[in-house]
Amino acid sequence: MLRPVVVGLDGSRESLAAADWAAGEALRRGLPLRLVHAWEGGASPDEPDLPELEAPRHWARRILRGAMDRLDERWPQLALSAEEISRPAAEALVGAGDEAELLVLGSRAFSGFGGFMAGSVALATVARVARPVVLVRADQTLEAEHEPDAEGRPSAHSPYRPVVVGVDPAHSCEELLAFAFESATLRAAPLRLVHTWQLPYGSHALDAKTRTDLRTGAERALDAVLGPWLEKYPGVEVTKLVEEGRPAPHLLQAARDAGLLVVGRRIRPARIGTHTGPVAHAVMHHVRCPVAIVPHD
User: Which residue of 52, 65, 86, 280 is surrounded by the most CB atoms within 10 Å?
Assistant: First the structure.
């Protein structure tokens, strides 16, 4: 059975932009799209029939119906379904996301998340879902994924912008690279890999040769991880950026003209709590293009 692309809706501009992006991704992948809206009410949307639940039920159905109509008009060939989930938002989204090929959520640039995705709910969702999560800004459009046309105007028919992925060969990269290469292939887009290296602590005065050796070691480590993927995806145009410094600033720079940024999130034991990691946290709040966060061991 095909896993769907799932998008969380709350009626905000951010979630509607996420629904549009998710529809395009579902079509690219040949998958159905499932719309979900979470609200805290009774045990199910159909019971009990209490007056105080009528307003949230009405709002939930209005949100889903409006999004369904909108998407069906734009993409009539897309297989659509919708569901009200009467559970706390993070819990509902984590459950829906774990059954998905990927989960798509709306987000507010530079200021966290809006609607039911406010504050800790968003972080808890991203940190706990076992499948990739894509965050989409309210100003994301179909044209924004593409290069400008020959006259420099936004276009949905020009080539896709690059896919950028941050890679750390010291940790498992299989899930991360699989998602990045597949995303680039589906878009016929170039893939830009970013790997950073840092000087040993307290060694800022190292000579030029030592710095060169460290850089060469970083390049070789990246090549070793990348080799099998280049063989598997020979049609993907790959650019490697191996830079000195912390990863987040280099990823932010590399993603300025990207159509999609892909970063990893290490799966941590439950006793440690919910964490996204410093790199994922930074790009979630400051990158303008959609951001895919891929969990890995």
Answer: 280
